[in-house]
């Protein structure tokens, strides 16, 4: 029987292809980190009303109302206001941020409570911590516009084109930690995986994401719905080594989006 000369070549080609496939399987996928502002889509942001339960893993839970509303400033500019307000006649605390509706860049944030108010005025290249009398207590340069934080993180989450492997970098102004330039942190917000989770509001298909500064000062795990409009339905806040995490969940939420 005549032996075909093509078989050795086919076997060699098969071995080469198998080797290439094996090599690719063993090679970790490269995740490219992109600037947040190059991907943010302001047109995706919708009005939102929700209720957060803070500390679902603790006995002393706190319930807050959360709102994202489009408002006009005295100068006629259209902005998004993201607001968390405590529930109860004695709880007058709130956490507020205003972001430009066209760009989503932060304009001002204010946190009130039993301690002195924390007020920050933002520009494209700086952040000012303000006293209650309107005088700047500190001005810090920013290498890029700051990522909206606090309630503004819910606005930012709506604006992202979430997908497997997504990783974005941003500048973050830390209202709670550090002195001077330590408050300006470089952060990366990445998708870790997709999950199905059950929260106080039911079952959700989510992207499990992680936001953390390069210096490891804190970590936020945000579970963002795969379905748009995107909502953060669970958040786990890690404050540092030795501190127990704070787990919070949405108890209810609703969107109103322009057609």
For the record, the count of structural domains works out to: 1
Distance between the termini: 74 Å
Strand order of the largest sheet: 1-10-11-12-13-14-15-2-3-4-5-6-7-8-9
Radius of gyration: 23 Å
CATH architecture: Clam
CATH topology: outer membrane lipoprotein receptor (LolB), chain A
Parts with pLDDT < 50 across at least 5 consecutive residues: 1-29
Structural class: mainly beta
CATH level-1 class: Mainly Beta
For the structure shown, list the relevant keywords.
disordered N terminus; 15-stranded mixed beta sheet; single chain; 259 residues; mainly beta
Brief rundown of the structure:
With 259 residues, this protein is mainly β.
Structure write-up:
- The protein has 259 residues and is mainly beta.
- The protein has a single domain (32-256), classed as outer membrane lipoprotein receptor (LolB), chain A (Clam).
- The chain has three helices and 15 strands.
- The protein has helices spanning 6-26, 36-39, 152-159; strands at 34-35, 47-54, 62-72, 78-86, 94-100, 106-112, 118-123, 126-130, 136-141, 167-173, 184-199, 202-213, 219-225, 232-238, 246-256.
- The chain has a 15-stranded mixed β-sheet.
- The protein is globular and about 45 Å long.
